[in-house]
Each structure stands twice: as C-alpha cells, then as structure tokens.
Write the structure tokens for this entry.
Amino acid sequence: MQSRLATCALFLLVLGVVALIYWPLSKADFVWDDIICLRDPAWLRQGDAWKHYVFRDFCDWTNYFRPLAVGLFVVEVRLFDVAPGPMHLVSLALHVLNTLLVGFLVIAADAPSQIERRTLMLAAVAMTLYGLHPALVEPVAWISSQTELLLTCFILLGLLLNRVIRHHLARAVLVASCFFLGACAKESAVAFPLVLFLFDWIDPRYTLGRHTVLREILGKQLAVYAAVFVAGVAYLGLRWGALGHLVDPHIDAEALPPLLARLQEACFAYLTYWRILLWPAFDLGPMHVVNMDQFVTVDAFAIAIDALSMLVCATGIWFLRKRHPIGSIVLCVTVVLLPALHILPVAFDASLYHARYAMTAVALVCILATKMAIDSPLSLRPWRAALATVFLAWLGMAIVNIRVTLPLWADETHLWQWELRTNPKSVPAKASLLAIYMKQGNRPGAHAMLTALTPDIASCPSCLLDAAYLALAEGDLQQAGAMLDTLRNDSRLTQSPRLLHTFIEVNALLLEAQNDLPRAEEAYRDAINVDPLEPVAQMRLAILLWHEGKREEAQRTAELAVLLFPPDVRDVRRHELRQVFGGVAGDRQAPTQ
C-alpha cells in the first residue's frame, strides 16, 4: 500500500510539472497545416462529408490514411467549435498520458513483488526525461501532430499490456488492437511488431540460454504475434479499400535519386535523429531543408557518415545477440525511425527530417535506458551527487528550451519569422509569411516577401497566386494577368484541388475587375464546383450576384457562405455583406454542432 501511494504521489508530481511547463499552450493559436486542414474546412464543422475525409483526401493529400487521427480532429473541432485552446489541451493530455505510460513501462519491465525505491525513483526520472525532452515541443505544440501522440500512445500501451496481462488470449487481442489503432493513427506503427519482439527478447521472464530463448518466447508469445499479424493484414485491407493502393502510385521512379544517394541520405538522417535524441537543444524549427546534392557525390564526409551509421547498427546487433539492453535501445530506435529515413521514396514535404518523428524513439530510449540502470549490478550511490547535478542541469536546460520555444509555435507569424531567421533561404517560410502579410493587409511586408521570393517564385504556385491577388488589390490588372498566365497550364494545379480552386477564384476576381461580369460569375461557380465547402468564393459570388441585380439568389448564397466560415469570423463576414447589400445579409443561424 505504501509503495502504491508513493508511486502515485511521485508520478503525479512529475505529471503536474510537465503539465505546468506546457500550460501556455492553452492560449496558443492554429499554425501551419492547422489553419488549412483544421480551422478552415467547413466539412469538419458541419454535415456528413467527414465520413469521406476520415478515410481519404484529408487536406487534399492523396496518400493520407489516418482515420483514427482524422476522426479525433472531427470530434475536437465540433466539440470545441474550432477553438484552438481546448485542442491544444487535448495534445497536452495525450502527452501527459504518454509520460505516465513511460513510468508504468519502467516499473513493469522490472516488476518486483514490491516496488523498490530505486525502481520508483528511476521511473520518475524516465518520465521527466521524456515529458520535458525538448525535441517533443513540436508534436505537443502543433495540433496536427496529434497523429504522433496517438501513435506513441498505442505503441507504449501495447508494450505495457504485453508485459502485464497474463491471460494468453486477452493479451493477444489487446496488444493486436493497440497495433491496429496505432496504424490507424499513423503508418509508422509498422515498426510495432519488431519493437514488441525486441522488448520480449530482453524480458527477464525468459531465462533460458541465448540459443533457446527464441523457442521459449515463441512458445509463450505465438498467439500475440499471430494476432498482431492478423491486425496488420486487417489494416492493410482497410487502407487498400479506402485509397485503392498501399503506397503512393504517383511516385516517378525515373525522378528518384540513385540508390547510393538514397543510402547516404538515410544515413545522414539516421545520425541526425540520434543527435536530436541525445542533444536536442538546438535546430528545433518547423523545417529542416538540406541540400540534397551533397548525397549524390561520395567524399570523405559522406564515407564517415555512412561508416558511423553502419557502426551504430552493428553495435546494436552485437549487443542484442547478448540480450543486453544497449542492443534493444539501438535497434528499437532504428526500427521506429525507419519510416522517417526516406528509404521508401515518399517525400511528404521539403524537409529531410522533423523532430516530431523522434517522439516514439525518445520514449523507448527513456524506458530501456532506465531498465539498464535498474538491472545494472553497479550501485549508483557513489555517483548520486554527480548524477543528480547532471540531471538537474539537463532539467533546467529543458525547461528553458521549452518555455522559449512554445511562444514561437503559438503564433503563425512568429513561427515563420523564426524559420526565416534560422534559414534565410527557406522558400516555405517566405511563402507562408507572404500569405500571412496579405491576410493582415500588410502590403509592405507582402512586397518584401515577394522580392525575397523572386528567384524561386516559379517553383511556388501559391506564391504566384498570392502575387496575382496582391496585384489585383493594387489595381495592376496587367501584372495579375501575367501571374495567372504563368500558371494557366501548370500541371501542379490539377494535382492540388486547393491550388486549382484558388487559381479559378483569383481569375474570377480578374474578370470582375475587367468588368466581364458574366464570365466572372461563371468562374466563381467553377471554383465552387471544385470545392463546394470553401466560403470565400461563395461570398464573392453573392456580392457579384447582388451587383447584377439577382438579389434573392445573392441573399441565399450569402447565407450559405457565412455558415461555411469558421465561427470566430462569421460576424465580420456578415458585417461586410451588410455593407454591400445595404441591409441584412447572411443572418441565418448556424446549425448546432
């Protein structure tokens, strides 16, 4: 009883500290993909279209299949009425839960009849190291990264249930369910079966010699492994049924870099993730664009990177053969990072790596390193003062790092200004700031970003569209037309419904400015056909219809447009429409969410 009370008190203290350090998130805003994927889409807020987007086409991504995560987004948006604060607190709650699971796994890995004080203290240390690890700021602070939090949660929960449940059938069903749910949160759960085996391999319950332990593990865990396999097949079947493919079919094999270049790229990313795990105090911005040309050539630096990567893996295998925890640490990290090493040619964005992809690896390192300390025959007493000093210094560094970084993730403008300071050549940062400044009406800032983007603007279709919109706002119809002509036959428009919709909408604005109202009306309707739930085109069509004398249709269109906007801007849009209509516009009440 005393051990349980001590465990509860200590664990609650650690969880409270983690929650307190991250509490400023309660006032954070939507940033980055949160805006276009969570705040703006009307299907998230109303109607039944979510049933389609849960399984495919979320945020216009053709290879995105994370139904559990998207389902959670739908629930949050509707429950909290598109308020970012409560959604950030859901992320924080998931992070606190994962921190708790780290502590439980440390205790379960030892599992004495009475929890020893040393185990309890080390479990609390592991929770602190995980909960306040600076590399985890991104996935905790960015709502869209709830996929990472869910993935880590189900992997840790599956490992814990595998350790504590004695009944074979119950253990098999529950562990396999965690694997299936983890995969439905993010594809990276593919690493779970190997991680599960690696944890079993060093499990002290299997006490036979190294050459017979595999037989003993299979004898006791065959039902679990079989259930996990069935769950994997079920997930693949569900993915195939939803997407029609397992891997993105649009990959251009001829455009892929040579195999040697991809190997060097993977080795570089692998060592970078180890650096993030062990020394995460810098380079934690949103983008990590690396010059990919360096991987095409072989030089002394590339050979050193490749050799060191191979050495790390070989060391892990050597220790694993001896059932030493170091082997499990190295190989668990390697396995969970494999989906992020660009071995498969799936480029989700321009970055080579992201700190958020290391989240599960951080948890496993904290658990396994603590287990190694618990199992070590060496006493920590002579080193207690030195270890406590190092731990407190690390803790202070981590807290300062988190508190400095959180405000940068809490605001869209601050986020991309931070990225631009870190990487002055970042095209995504400049493009994002261009869009932000235009939305704010900051034309000097927008022109500054356009000037900075001049060498790269042809590679940025959204930048060309923003430039055309800015030219229209300033009455330069010739410049706007030139920007649109640059994109008119661009294949990238057909690959992105969002870009195509924006192109048609800006073209409609140009036609309207040229006083070609019939063609402008037709263009607005085309934009609405591309995305019937996008409100801006609906609103502009309503205004155009009003000027054409089609008052009743304009009123109906305005009412629909207002309902499609996020709740926090509906009153502003109603006011804008009233000014145009000279009376009541868009006043129908929004349906109850």
About this structure: The chain has two domains: 2-412, 414-581.
